[in-house]
Amino acid sequence: MHEPIDIDAVEVFRENSTYRIGDLFYRKGVRWEKDRAAVLREPHFGSTILHDYLVAMNHEEDFATLGRVVRAHVERNGYPQPPADELVIHLRLGDLMQRGLPYGKRRHRRAHRMYETLARQLSASGMAEKTATIV
User: What is the number of other CB atoms lying within 10 angstroms of the CB of residue 8?
Assistant: First the structure.
């Protein structure tokens, strides 16, 4: 088990319309170019994984560089890491649960089915007896 994070020490953006790693990595959406420029230009993004990736990338969708940047941030900032046999599942719920989005219910049902399938597969494989952390 790893040490808990001091949640009060975690910096959180109050608004997140610009810093979207997936969209800027894969060049998705109508604003990806503008938002990449903002991440590179604006000082409050200067010490982020996305900023460092954009500076260091050798080509588009450069997974090797992204991996190096993430590992450097983990080491530099002392982020806790799970043991090798621990399954970590990141639940991304913001888009799914936001009221008023026309696709929210459809995405919610699809995500629910995906997590049910994952639970069945883990149980069948014996992984269910290992540690799983949901973040």
Answer: 5
The helix (run of H) or strand (run of E) holding residue 96 is helix 94-97
Q: What is the spatial distance between Cα 13 and Cα 42, in angstroms, rounded to a whole number?
A: 13
Tell me the pTM.
Answer: 0.67
CA 55, 56, 61, 67 dihedral sign is: negative
Top pLDDT among 23 and 85 is at 23
**Per-residue model confidence (pLDDT) at position 51:** 97
Are 36 and 54 in contact by the 8 Å Cβ rule? The answer is yes
Query: Integer distance in angstroms from the first to the last C-alpha of the chain?
Result: 15
Distances (CA, A) of 37 to 40, 52, 108, 124: 5, 13, 32, 46
- Tokens 């994070």, residue located: 5
